[in-house]
Amino acid sequence: MEGSKTFAKAFMAKHNIPTAAFAVFNEASIVDARNFVASCGGPTKVVLKASGLAAGKGVLLPENEAEFEQGLQDILVNKVFGAAGAELVIEARLSGPELSILTFADGYSTYSLPCCQDHKRIGEGDIGPNTGGMGAYTPAPEGLVPGMTERIEKEVIAPTIAGMRKDGFPFVGLLFTGIMLDEKGPQVLEYNVRFGDPETEAALELIDTSAGGAGLAELVLACAERRLDSVSSE
Questions:
Q1: Exposed (0-12), middle (13-18) or buried (19+): which is 34, by Cβ within 10 Å?
Q2: What CATH number did the domain enclosing 214 receive?
Q3: Burial category of 90 from C-beta neighbours within 10 Å (exposed 0-12, middle 13-18, buried 19 and up)
Q4: Number of structural domains, the chain?
Q5: For residue 40, what are the domain limits?
Q6: Which end of the chain has a smaller Cβ tally under 10 Å, C or N?
Q7: Contact between residue 195 and residue 174 where contact means Cβ atoms under 8 Å apart
Q8: 178-198 pLDDT per residue, tens
Q9: DSSP designation for 64
Q10: Inter-axis angle of helices 30-40 and 65-72, to 10 degrees?
Q11: What is the distance of C-alpha 141 from the center of its chain?
Q12: Global confidence as pTM
């Protein structure tokens, strides 16, 4: 789910989890990649993603033909991301605010922390290449819109956990889901099967045990023992 964006995108397509339209290419299909991007309306309409793990830096948003071609060469030919660039996922570019959702899961039950937002771009004014994260805050205003949390749970989190169980790898632990809110609603950008940095530092501060709610250790233990639905998270 995290180690291969190709796998994750196929999983989302299989289980009808909302995500951007995509296609997958390798070094032998560079011509096909160029044709696909042209069919999407050009470089500014797509996102290039190294399929494997690239420390949060394997996503490129070309702003012109030259940047697209350079990104294509860097990922598939020059292997600037190493083995992570053996495959290239090209997605339709979405527009809207991003949210990060950290969800505890025991294979069946889930508990999500309030939505976070991180700052990815290296430059002031949200410009420049993506980094592994330049800080985060929570709760994100977009996640506080009435009904949004419930919609994300229904359309994204629940079918993801159910799909993993159905496919024979029930998820137990902390699932990080990156989401963009476009005009259609929540669209999944990526999954990480771990706590996400830097969002975790902000989100864990909102776990409130003052009224008897479960703390971090209790939540993790409940996941491991498959009894998350038995603990209070309020």
A1: middle
A2: 3.30.470.20
A3: buried
A4: 2
A5: 21-92
A6: C
A7: yes
A8: 999 999 999 999 999 999 888
A9: S
A10: 150
A11: 19
A12: 0.89
